[in-house]
Fold each of these.
Amino acid sequence: MSEIPQSTTTSRQFDELPDAPPKRKIRLSWSGKLGIAVLVFWATIVAIGPYIAPYDEAEFLDESLFIVPGSDEKYPDTDFQPPSRVVLLGSDYMGRDTLSRILFGARTTIGISFIATILAYLIGVTLGIAAAVGSRFLDMVLSRVNDALLSIPSIMLGLVMIAALGSTIPLLIVLTGIIYAASVFRIARSLGQEVMVSDFVEAARVRGEGLWWIITREILPNVAMPLATDFGLRFVWVILFISALSFLGLGVQPPMSDWGSMVKENLPGLIYGSVAPLVPSLAIATLTISVNMIVDDVSAQTGGKLAKRMIS
Amino acid sequence: MSPLLAVDDLKISARKDDGDLTPIVKGVTFNVARGEVVALIGESGSGKTTIALSALGYTKPGLEFVGGEVRLEGEDVITMVPDQQRALRGQRVAYLAQSAAATFNPALTIGEQVTESSVLHGILSKEQAHERAKVLYQALELPDPELLGRRYPHQVSGGQLQRLMAAMALCGKPDLLVLDEPTTALDVTTQIEVLKAFKSVIKQEGSSAIYVTHDLSVVAQIADHIVVLYAGETQEYGTAEQVVNRPTHDYTRRLMHAVRPPPAAGQGDATSGEHKRDAPALEVSNITAGYGKKSDGKPTITVLRDVSVAIERGQSIGVIGESGCGKSTLARVMAGLLPATEGQVLLGGQELKSTLVQRSRDELQKVQFVFQMADTALNPKQRIDHILGRPLEFYLGLKGKEKRKRVGELLEMVELPQDFAGRYPEELSGGQKQRVNLARALAASPEVLLCDEVISALDSIVGANVIDLLRRLRQQTGVSFVFISHDLSTVASFADEIVVLYAGRVVEKGSTDRVLSPPYHPYTRLLISSVPELRVGWLEEAVQTQEAQAGIDRLVTLTETGCPFFDRCPLAIEDTCDQETPPIRDLGEGHLISCHRSESEFRH
C-alpha cells in the first residue's frame, strides 16, 4: 500500500498567536501637528525674539517716524497708532512698538511660566510619589497640607504674597511653582498609588528590592508619560496665571514687557479701535490653544484615560 | 428550510495606521439552524469573537467587513443601515458578554436591567416583561423568582449573575443568542450550574445560539455543531459528536490533547521517599491569617484557619479549592506578603520572619513567587533582559557578560527564542509572557516556587504547554513547587501531593493518588465530579450525582464554628457539623481527612 503523502495542512505548525498587535506609535492628527507648528513658532521667538525686534521693548518711538509726508502736522500722536510700515503691529498706549514688545515679552512670559512649571513638577512629583509609596501617616500629612493649599484661591494667595514681599521675577516663579505643585501632587500621588499596587511592584517587593529601586525603576517609568502630557496643560494654566497677575499689575513690572500686562496697559485702546490690546491676547490664545491641541491629541491616542484623571 | 443565520465566506480585516488591511477572518462559512447551538472554538487571536459579533452586524473599532455575507433569515446584517441594525440588536439577536459582573450596573436592580432591553425595543410592556423575567428565572433555576428582580447585582452569586445575564438576553425572545465565553472565568462547580441552566433554557425557549469558547470539553456538553477556528480560518466544521469523537483535523486533535484527562488516581509523579528524612523545603504550621486588623491583633476577616502544609524537597504540592477558599492567601503567607497572625513559616527547618522586610536576602531568594497574571506581573516599561537580569544581579551578583549569558540560558530553559531578550512584554503573547514570568522566578535559583494559578488565564493549548514546561523544569532543577489552582485536572497531572482547601481550612490532604481515589472528603468528591469531561452527555450525568445536587450553586462562606462545608454537604449531620469543628482522621500514609463522618461512611 502506498503511503499517502502528508498534506501541507497536517504538517503545519500551529504557533501561539500574538495577544495584540504591536503597540501603535503615537501619530498626531492635523490638529496636533498644527499645535506643534504654533508651539515651534513661539519657541523660535523665545530664542531669537530680542535680536529680530525692530526696536527695544522700552523705547518710546520718535514722533518724526509718524510724520506723513506732505502733512503739516509737526507733532503727530505716537500712541495707539494703527499698523503701518513703521510699526507693523501698531504702537501701544505710550507710543512703543507692539511687535517689539511681543517679541521681548515672549521670553518673559514663556520663560517664567516654563521655569515655574518645572519647579511645580519637581515639588509636586517628589512629594506625590513620596505620599504614594510612604507610610499611611506620611500620606495623610502631605495630603492634608496639600488640601489646605488647594483650598486657598490661587490668585488671592498670589496677591497676598506679592503684596507682602514685593514683585520680583524669582518670587513670581517660586510662588507660582508652589501654588501649582499642589495640583501636580494630586496627580502624581494617584498615578503612583495605582502603579504601587500593581503585580510587578509586588514582585519587586517579594524580591526584596528597596524603596529607591521601586520608585526609580518600577514607578517613575510608568507614570512618566501621563505626567508629561499633564505638564503641557499645567504649563498653559501657569501662563494664564502669570498673565492674570500681570494684568492686575502685580506680575512682571514695567518697563519689562509681558503679554499679560500688555493686555492690561492697552485696554483703553479698545475704545479707539487700536490693535494694541488684541495682539498680546492673540499671542496668549495661540500659545495656550496650541498646547491644548497637542495634549488632547496625545491623550486621545493613549485612550483618554488621562483626561479623566485630570478632572478628579 | 433555510437556516436562521447563514455566515457565508465572511472576511474581516483590521486597518492599520498606514492604511493597510490585515486579514483577521479569512473566509469563514457556517450556518445556524433554528433551535441549534453552534460553537466557535479556538485560541485567543483566532477571530472567534469577531465572527460571533458579526451576527449583530458589528465589528470592534479598527476592524471592517471586507467580504462575504451574514444573513439572518435571508437579510444581510452587514449591509443594513444603522437604524435597522439597532432594531436587530437586542431584539432579534442578543449578546452575552464574558463577565456578568462587568455587564450589570451595580446601581440598578436586577429586574430593571433584565427587562430594560425588551421594554426599550417596545416588544413587551413593563408588566409583561417582568412576568416574562420571572418565567426565565424559573427556567434558569434561580432562587426566589418572585423577588429576585428587586435585588441588586451584588446580592447574588457570580454563577447566578451569569445566569441572570442569560435572562437579560432572552427576555425579548431573540431568535439568536451570541454567548461569548460565558463560563470561562468560573469555578468548575459554578460552571456546571451555569451550563446546565443555559442548556435547559435554550431548549425550553427553542432559541438558537452561537457559543464562543476555547474549552472543548464545555463545547461538547452544549453544542450541536462545532466550528474549529485557527488564525481566522475554519479548520474543521461538523456535528459535535463527530468533531469530539472523530476529529479529522490536526488542530482539533491538538485541542483535544490539551484537554487534561479527568483527575484520577495514578496520574501524579511517583513519590520518592528518599528526601523525606530532611527537613521539608518549606513548611507552614498552624497558620491563621486574614485581612484587616482588629484591636486585639486578630484579623477582621480570618481567611485561613489552622492550616499546616509541608513541602518536601523536590516535591510538588497542589493546593486546590474554589475561589474564596484562601488558596492565594496561603501563597501570600508563604511568600511573606501577608504576615500570619498565628503559626510559623519554616524554610528548611528554620523559622522565617513573617514580614518581607525582616527576611534576609538569602531567605527571599529561596522562595520565589510566580504571579497569576503575567500581563500585570511584568513591568511594561522594562525589556525582557532587564526583567530577567535583575534577580540575577540582585541575588547572585552577576554582571555584564555573565548576566547576559545566564539570561540566554533562562530563555532557553523556558523555550523562548534568544532575541526575545530585547523585546518589551507587550510584544509577547499571553503564554510567552507567562514563560518570562516563570523564568524570572527561576533566575533566583530558588528552592521553592510558589505558582499562583499560573495557567488559569491561558487558553487550553497554551496552558498545556506551560504545564509540560513546568514538569520538565521540575525534573531539571529539582525545585519544589507549590501549585495553586482551581482546576483539579491540572493539579492532578502535576502534583505529588494535594491539599484541598475549603473556606480557609484543610479538608483533605495526602498524596495525589490517595486524594483522588476513595475515600474522599465530600468536598473533594464534589470537585472531582465537577471537572468537565470531553464527551457528549457528560453534563447530564454529572448533575445527577448526589454531590452536585447538594453542592453546586452555593457560595463559599467563611464560618467561625463547625465545618464550613456544612450547607453544601450531602452527608452533613444536623447539629453536629454546624456546631463542632470536625476531627481530623488519619487514613495512613499521611492521608488526612477532616470530617465528622467516619471513614466507612464517606467511602460508599
Amino acid sequence: MTTFGRGLRTLVLATVLTIIVALALVFLYAPLDADQGFIQKIFYLHVPLAIVSLCGFVFGGLLAIGHLRTRNRAWDMRSYVAIHMALIFGVGGLITGSIWAKASWGHWWDWSDPTLTSFLIVLLLFATYQPLRFSIEDPERQARYASVFAVVSAAFVPLNFIAVRLAQQFVHPRILTLGGGNLPGSMRLTFLVSLLGMALLYATLWKYEMTAKNARIQVRRLRRSLLGDDSVRPLGRSAAPS
Amino acid sequence: MPEALDWLVGPFTLPFMQRALLGALGVGLICAVIGTFVSAIAIQTRARDLIAPIIGLPLLIPALIATARAAGPLLAAHGSGSPPTKWIAILALYDVVFALIAYAVFDYLLED
Amino acid sequence: MSALAVSPALAPGKAAPYVIAAYAVFLAIVLIYVAIMARRLTRTEKDVQQLKRELDQRAAAAEHKDEREPVL
C-alpha cells in the first residue's frame, strides 16, 4: 500500500502562497471592468471554480480508466475522490455564478443560456455517481461499474462543452476564446494566478482526502489483525439494511 | 411496380427529407446506444427503475437539443426550411463518439 | 481605465455585498471541508490510541506470562 501523504506539506504551502498572491492581485492589482465594475471581481473566483471542476471530472475519468485496466482498487478510490471533489467545486462554481448573475443581470438564473444549462447537466450527471455507486452491494462490481460510469461521463464533459460552444447564444460573457481571449494583460495575469491557485487547492484537497482514507484503511486493517474480525464495524456504505 | 416505389422513394429525392431522415437515424441510434448502456448498468443496482432514467437523461440531453434544433426549421409556422447541417453534424458526431465509447467499456459491464 | 463614472453597473458600495457573499461561499466550503476532515482525523487518532493500548496490554501480558514460567 503506497504512502499517500508524501508531498502534502509542500503542496499545502504552494497552495496557500498562490491563493494569497491571487487574492492580492484580484483586489489590489487588477483594474476595474468597464461594463461591470466591482462585481467583475467574482469572475476570478467563479471561472476557476468551474474550470477546475470540469477538469476534475475528466481527471476522475482518466483515473477510472486506470482502474479498469489494472484491476487495482486504489485507482478506483482515486477516481471516486476526484469526482467527489470536482462535484463540490462545481457546486461552488454554480453558487458563485448565481451570485454574479444576480448582481450583473438582475436574476439568479437564466434558462436560455446554454453554458449555464450544460454545466448544470454535467453536475446533475455526476451527482448520480454516488447513488449509483452505493446502490451496488458487491464491492468489486461496485468499483467496476462506478469506473465505467466515470469514464463515460468524463467523455461526456468535452462533448457537452463543444456542443455548447457551437450554439450561438452570447448572453454568457465569452471571455476565454481559443484566440487568447479579450482580457487585458493585467486581468489575464490575475486570472491565470487565480486559476493556478484553484487547481493547486483541488490537488491539495484531493491528496489530503486520499491520505486520510488511506490512513483509515490501514488502521482498520491493523485493528482487524490485532483484535479480531468482529472488532471492526463494516464501512456500511451500501444500501443494504444492516 | 415502379409507381409504388415512386410513392415510397419519391419524397426522399428532396434534400430536406434526406436530412430529416439522417436526423431521425441519428436520434434513434443515440437513444439505442445510451438506453442499452444505462440499462446494463442499472440492472445490477438496487434501485434499477430509478437509476436508469436518472443517468440516461443527462447523457441524452445534447442529442435532444441537436435533434430539436435540427427539426425546428421543418416545423416552423411561416417560412419553414431544411434542417441545418450544423445540428445534423453535431448529432452524428455525438452518435459516433458515444457508440465508440460504449463499445469500448461494455466488456467491463458484462464480465460475470 | 477610469470607467467608474461611465459604467452602468453597480457602484462599489452596492456591489460589495455580492462580491463578499461570493468569496464567503468559497471560504465556507473550504472551512466546512476542513472541519469534516478534522473530525475524521480525531476519530482515526482515537482508533490508533486504542490499538496502541491493546498492543501494550498484550505485551505486558506476554511479559507477565514469561515471568511465571520457571527458568530451567
